């Protein structure tokens, strides 16, 4: 029997995205966002949902661009810090010792030390209540060469991304491989 816990924002896994933007003065800023994910295959898009009071919110509206940097497990403290401090009050990148890199494709920075980056131009914005959902077309994905597999694609076991648990308010690493997608299900036939 299942127990009701009420209407809550619980889904697994929930990402630990680090969203990069420039403010009106051109200062790079980052924030951690857990409400997000892939929202279209063609064109490739990712969506994030932010509260209007967030500094990053106005940056995305102004610049019509953002990046999503995917941190590895070694940067869990910095990623958490990016979500608890406002860029209005602090230069988070400078304080953390991490490096902002200007995207050559969109008007937004990304975090150099994080192994995977999505560069996005804003294509859609919708008010959902407390949050606004921003959909960005993924213009390019960049991955550090040391984090790719034999086919030249991102290797999750090398990247070691981590996830946010909204119920327990904790971070967790990636688990073991359970099977090949679009293949293991064929065993049921």
From TrEMBL:
Q: Does the keyword Flavoprotein apply?
A: yes
Give a single Pfam family match.
Answer: Flavin_Reduct
Query: What are the Flavin reductase like domain coordinates in residue numbering?
Result: 9-164
Which keywords fit this entry according to its UniProt record? Flavoprotein
User: Does the keyword field hold Plastid?
Assistant: no
Q: Which cofactor does it need?
A: FMN
Q: Which GO terms describe its molecular function?
A: FMN binding
PANTHER family documented for this protein: FLAVOREDOXIN, FLAVOREDOXIN-RELATED-RELATED
- UniProt similarity note: Belongs to the flavoredoxin family.
Protein's UniProt name = Flavin reductase domain protein FMN-binding protein
Q: Which organism is it from?
A: Methanobacterium paludis (strain DSM 25820 / JCM 18151 / SWAN1)
